[in-house]
## 1
Amino acid sequence: MARSVDEQEHTAKRNKILAAAQKLIYTKGFERMTVQDLIDQLGISKGAFFHYFASKRDLLEALIDQMTLEILTHLNAILEDPGLNAAQKLEKYFRSALHWKAERRDLMIAIMHAWYLDENAIVRQKAFDKGMLEQFVPILTRLIEQGNRDGSWNAPHAGAVALMSVYLLQSWGDTLSRKLLNSSSTITRAWLEETVQAYTESMERLLGAPAGSLTLFDVDELAVWFLPAAHEQMDAPSASEKVSFAPTQITERENR
């Protein structure tokens, strides 16, 4: 019993540090936030911080793990919905995940600046291995198997298709993130629509789904990432009209 209480207390204190880190990231950005900032914010000692996190990079990894767990927990709830076929579950998951991230846009972008720094390459790889390969691939495999049974698509090698799909999705995420963080990049509606179509068609082919049967990404909601008021601009009369989205400027790196 004592051990259980100790573990709960440890988790609670660790989560308190993570919550404080999120607030500071909103206001300062991850790169400008220091361990001392967290210590001052929480009123704890430096030793107390390092008891829970070996480094600031370890803190970044924990934040990503926490967000990944929340998204995957939400995905599991969607998978358990008996009223949806596999294609509907897949579409609902993509819409829900995008909406979840859009609600946390400022936090996600602040973390993204640190996420793509060269010194965090190992953290990115570890998070991909743990979150996508170890956790998401089995979930997606089960969903693909359901789709084979209910006629949503035809993917005989469900596990292999799930693995290839994850790498495709990783490419999709990297493509948008790097565009977003590139201060010299200009995103147009035409580019966004074309990219969404290309990745959606690729998923359909991997799954053996009928062409045009899946709608995975909402262009208007994606536009919010590139300009907070983009959803207003994207209500233009012509669907083919190009609208430029000003990407967020990369925060200058400072010494920690």
Note: Residues 229-256 have pLDDT under 50 and may be disordered.
## 2
Amino acid sequence: MIFSKILKTLALSLVSVISISACQRSIEPDDKRLGYAYFPLEIGRYIVYNVEENTYRISDNGVPQTRFYQLKEIITDTFTNLSGEKQYVLERYVRSSLDSPWQIDSVWSALRTGSQAIKFENNVPYIKLVFPTENNKRWNGNAYNNKGEQIYRITEYRKTKTLGELSFSNTLKVEMGNDSSLVSHIQREEIFAVDVGLIYLFRKNIRYFSDSPNLGSGRIESGKIEKFIIVDYGKE
């Protein structure tokens, strides 16, 4: 009888140990579990993008002016903002070709709180992500600026993504508006990868010809279409 009780106790202990070990193996670090790793901030981190811009003007009669260049964004410093939070300085450089020297283009900044990732683009704050991240999550990306409500939504979550020669095993896509009509189309989306950050950006803000021969044809009258694709990243 005593021997039977001992065996039962040992068996229950073994089950408990196995259960605890299994739970420990399945728990991700907080930065990945909550989604912080999609928006890493650390001095020295950089990303290089290939950029394509197509600009349409009324005077060009629907023929776009196309520009190709590279953009490098690097975190160079931090400062304490008025709310007492650590904010990171993002220096942005451009060059027209691989053989050209980098030229400073602008200085942006970013910060990450326990619940939000915020990027200041030309001093305009946008809420890029909210934490914890999850599929179909929605928020107002313009909550801290005066540009009017714009609902952002995570439309793909923890997906593998390949861009050129680079592959990323864990990404999410944020749709930041997609409004289309016979006379205009406004669309923006961004893709973030774990431990990397923004790897892809697409922006479209165009108007179509709306005169009677062209209405509904999809012929672009004016506006811009931009695409940013990551080609390199790391830490200096």
Note: The chain has two helices and twelve strands.
